[in-house]
Amino acid sequence: MENELGHADCPVTATIALFDGRWKVMILYVLSKKSRRFGEILVRVPSISKKVLTEQLRELEADGLISRKQYRETSPRVEYALTDLGKSLCPLLIDIAAWKRKYIGSPNQGETKLPD
Amino acid sequence: MENELGHADCPVTATIALFDGRWKVMILYVLSKKSRRFGEILVRVPSISKKVLTEQLRELEADGLISRKQYRETSPRVEYALTDLGKSLCPLLIDIAAWKRKYIGSPNQGETKLPD
DNA sequence: AAAAGTGGTAACCTAAAAGTAACCTTATGG
DNA sequence: CCATAAGGTTACTTTTAGGTTACCACTTTT
């Protein structure tokens, strides 16, 4: 373990802060599959409210992990997508999941899965 | 990005929860250098209070990342150390720091560093 | 005898995050 | 002309993490 973990504003803490929020990892997961509209994300992240989803999307956008594109069509239409930075995070998240499988155990065998 | 991020109780979220807490990463960092007594950690984690340090140590212990050994010597003496599980986490934290350096930038050049 | 160090606990407070429910705007369909 | 849908916003309440201060039990030092 190197010195990099010891700074007053620690890079690990700073990075974790990017996806710190009850639902952010799940939102990133949903978007990693496919760009999605607001309502599609809402349905795929179980039990999140519109308000909190809006907040977390805004934060993810501010941190540069996702993009928001508004299409002025007939009905309002907003598409969210991972940015390149957001995509670069995915392998890291997979490493984290891999650590859990290896050292803690399988990710809760037989639990409910989210729809794609 | 694989399915593993999509479970209702997501392994990534579960893993992050292990070191989610204002000071946990820093505590792990301190202990990664050397086993330490309560008071030694207190001094090395800037501005943490006894209460919060106690809480976070208890949680880290409950999660199996650190061990607590009480020596009934003359004055009370308690040693905290990383467990094997705790040690296994260090490379992961380093990966997270490395991601930040690569995609966000250097870990705040010239900032104050913690004493060892 | 008093003070100081060690590793805490107890009672209390506060700010921020998250949750709930109602409402808004523009547009279309019936 | 009313209802519905999308993508929110507003106002309010609840929950939680973290912080502050005081105190404790025990032992050694002065």
UniProtKB/TrEMBL annotation, chains A, B:
Keywords: DNA-binding, Transcription, Transcription regulation
One Pfam family from the record: HxlR
Taxonomy of the source species: Bacteria, Pseudomonadati, Bacteroidota, Chitinophagia, Chitinophagales
Any GO MF annotation of the entry: DNA binding
Provenance organism: Chitinophaga terrae
Span of domain HTH hxlR-type: 10-108
SUPFAM superfamilies cross-referenced by the UniProt entry: Winged helix' DNA-binding domain
Protein name as catalogued: Transcriptional regulator, HxlR family
